[in-house]
Design a protein that fits this description.
The complex is a heterodimer of chains A (377) and B (268).
Chain A lengths: L6 H6 L1 E12 L2 E12 L3 E5 L6 H9 L6 E6 L2 E2 L10 E4 L11 H5 L10 H14 L15 H13 L5 E5 L7 H18 L2 E6 L2 H7 L2 E6 L2 E6 L1 H6 L4 H6 L4 E9 L3 E6 L3 E6 L10 E7 L5 E3 L10 E12 L3 E8 L6 E6 L12 E6 L5 E3 L5
Parallel strand pairs in A: 3-8, 3-9, 6-7, 7-8
Antiparallel strand pairs in A: 1-2, 1-4, 4-5, 9-10, 11-12, 11-14, 12-13, 14-20, 15-19, 16-17, 16-19, 17-18
Helix pairs in contact in A: 4-5
Chain B lengths: L1 H27 L16 H8 L1 H34 L5 H9 L6 H15 L5 H25 L3 H9 L4 H29 L3 H6 L6 H8 L6 H32 L10
Classes of the chains: A alpha+beta (377), B mainly alpha (268).
The structure holds adenosine-5'-triphosphate (ATP) and magnesium ion.
């Protein structure tokens, strides 16, 4: 990592270029013309429901699957005739794939077999790699005598010791328990910043993707539905489907009255409002539509609370409330809307949780709404 | 009450199974050419006679050559077949595997007769070579069964990991696959060896003048004074077979445990 260019320049350059990449398994169309760039040094996540083709795409990049169409280049070099063992990628497998007949040291040093450097040099690099993943002193252990978390670390060290241009991780944390998973999430993130290698993470856990990634590609049925930063993805999902997949989003039926730089709407439960054109992904159309908002963008007001200075107020009834310690989750039925909406509130001293059945005012802001003009279906 | 019935059944079964074998060493050390009770004293002369019987030693030599060749050949075929069925998809895979496994249930006599007819038609002369051929045919289904379980317990991502780390498919086979299935290979070698060593029917049909041990032993029963020597030989063979099977099973289980898989096959 000594001669790498300045971080800004590195971030700008595409390291992996996918151009209309297709994959067929027999008749099954698993990847549908995927075109995207993955930048040098970024933490890139592939997020999507089971069977959408995340693993397939990762394996195509690694070279374990041939692509059926399109082009794939890494570092400006077309990968068509480059087999997996010659690609500048390394992989952390979902099952970790630790060689059971070798020790931890031999596992981590496996990729150095073809390296011409001296024995001492290799031993030093193995020790360094083990230390980096927090397994100092575990070198002589038999690989099958490791816990899940330790296996995961061995797999990481083994892949990183070769200093690949890209590290591919296929659901590396799914086999760990919740606590271990959360710890590894932050460790992985730190490790990625420390080594500066491009990480491509496959996950079906949206929270994990949001926490760890610089950018996330949301995939459905072999296509990338949206590629954005976690924040953009959360705040401006491109479709209802993406919105529903990332976190919780409430939807209210709406009528688009007029379009333009300002869009005029009639939203069930909220009344007639105007929003910015920027709040509508895709092209706004008059007629039936739906409006989405996140649970934390609305506020349940107490009796005697003043009217909010910004934003507006709607009327509703508390249908259900779930107390979560630091947070409370309300299900509120807005007046004139059949389906209750979810509103999350941070619990504060002196403001007890409202009981079920309370009539209450809801404060909301037009700026937090997202308009979806897609046809119903 | 019912439990007791089963107990008696089990005991009778075991007596039926092992009493004849237990008689072998008893008469092998009995100082008389007549195989009957009462015993007439202890001797090791039958064992020492073994070493001076040149035609018997020749039969032992034939058997060893055949058994070693068969174990190597059948294990090689087993490796190819097991690798193919566990890694690759090809048309008619099920049917093809069924055909390969068929000799497992085909009576040996049918295999022996048909092989003999074919060999005669081809004008081949009978020798231990033709026995090797026949034995490989019947031993291969067993080696495939053993090696399939060894290859199946291999995680495919282990191979991919090795390739990902820069190894070629060939070096991956040598560095990862072979060590992990080695216990299965050893147990396959031993099973094929012991199948070949005591096989009679095919050997009797195909050996011509180069009799293998079982063929030789059966022929010797015409001479009553040879019987105690055969008892001695039988004793040695029983010990050898038990040793071989035990070692084979030990390696098979160790292999599965080592690769972290579940026990899905095997004979013991
Ligand atoms: N070797 C294969 N042969 C045939 N079909 C396959 C093969 N591998 C994957 N598929 C199919 O391709 C689709 C995508 O599979 P893939 O493994 O990429 O999904 P995924 O997004 O990783 O899902 P998961 O979250 O469950 O791991 C699935 O419908 C799967 O059945
Ligand atoms: Mg997957």
């Amino acid at each position: 990592m000594t001669s790498s260019p300045a971080p800004a320049a590195r971030l700008a350059r595409p390291l992996i270029e996918l151009r209309e990449v297709e994959k067929y398994y027999g008749d099954y169309y698993a990847l549908r013309k995927i075109t995207t760039d993955i930048r040098e040094g970024e933490f890139f996540s592939l997020l999507g429901p089971s069977g959408c083709g995340k693993t397939t795409l990762l394996r195509c990049i690694a070279g374990f699957e041939d692509i059926s169409g399109g082009h794939l280049a890494i570092d400006g070099k077309d990968m068509e005739d480059v087999p997996a063992n010659k690609r500048p990628t390394n992989m952390v497998f979902q099952s970790y794939a630790i060689f059971p007949h070798l020790t931890v040291e031999e596992n981590v040093g496996f990729g150095l077999r073809r390296d011409p450097s001296s024995k001492e040099d290799k031993a030093r690099r193995v020790a360094e790699a083990l230390e980096m993943v927090g397994l100092k002193g575990f070198g002589k252990r038999a690989a099958h005598a490791l816990s899940g978390g330790q296996r995961q670390r061995v797999a990481l060290a083994r892949a990183l010791i070769l200093k690949p241009r890209v590290l591919l991780l296929d659901e590396p944390l799914s086999a760990l328990d919740k606590k271990m998973r959360e710890q590894m999430q932050s460790e992985l993130r730190k490790l990625q910043r420390q080594v500066g290698i491009t990480f491509i993470l496959v996950t079906h856990d949206q929270e994990e993707a949001l926490i760890m990634s610089d950018r996330i590609a949301v995939m459905f049925e072999g296509e990338i539905a949206q590629l954005d930063s976690p924040e953009r993805l959360y705040r401006r999902p491109i479709s209802r489907k993406v919105a529903e997949f990332i976190g919780i989003m409430n939807f209210l039926p709406a009528q688009v009255l007029s379009t333009g730089p300002q869009i005029a709407l009639d939203v069930a439960g909220l009344g007639q409002i105007g929003i910015d054109a920027e709040q509508c992904p895709g092209t706004p159309r008059t007629g039936e539509a739906s409006v989405g908002f996140r649970p934390e963008t609305m506020t349940v007001l107490y009796d005697g609370d003043p009217e909010p200075t910004r934003g507006k107020v709607a009327q509703g009834t508390v249908e259900e409330v779930v107390y979560f310690g630091d947070m409370s989750y309300y299900e509120v039925r807005l007046e004139g809307v059949e389906k209750p909406v979810q509103i999350s509130m941070r619990n504060v001293v002196g403001r007890p949780v409202l009981p079920r059945g309370s009539r209450t005012r809801i404060a909301w802001e037009a700026g937090a709404l997202v308009l979806f003009c897609e046809p119903k279906g | 009450m019912r439990g007791r019935g089963f107990q008696i059944y089990a005991i009778c079964y075991l007596i039926f199974l092992y009493a004849p074998i237990a008689l072998l060493p008893i008469f092998a050390f009995n100082n008389s050419t007549v195989i009957s009770f009462p015993l007439s004293g202890f001797t090791t002369q039958w064992f020492s006679q073994l070493w001076t019987d040149t035609s018997l030693l020749l039969a032992v030599k034939h058997s060893l050559i055949v058994a070693v060749s068969v174990s190597i050949l059948a294990t090689c075929f087993g490796v190819f077949a097991a690798r193919a069925t566990t890694r690759y998809a090809f048309p008619m895979k099920q049917g093809l595997m069924g055909m390969i496994m068929l000799p497992l249930v085909l009576p040996d006599i049918i295999i022996a007769v048909s092989l003999l007819v074919v060999l005669m038609q081809m004008g081949a002369s009978l020798s231990i070579l033709t026995v090797i051929l026949g034995h490989t045919l019947i031993a291969t289904p067993f080696t495939i069964a053993i090696l399939n379980s060894a290859f199946q317990s291999l995680d495919k991502s282990l191979e991919e990991a090795a390739i990902d780390l820069g190894e070629t498919p060939a070096s991956t086979f040598r560095l990862i696959i072979l060590p992990l299935v080695m216990p299965g290979i050893i147990s396959s070698l031993l099973i094929a060896f012991s199948i070949s060593l005591d096989e009679y029917i095919i050997a009797a049909f195909l050996s011509g003048t180069e009799a293998t041990l079982p063929v030789y032993i059966f022929a010797q029963f015409r001479f009553p004074n040879k019987v105690p020597v055969i008892m001695a030989l039988g004793t040695i063979l029983v010990c050898l077979s038990i040793a071989l099977l035990t070692i084979a099973e030990y390696f098979r289980r160790r292999g599965i445990a080592k690769a972290g898989g579940k026990d899905t096959g095997g004979f013991l």
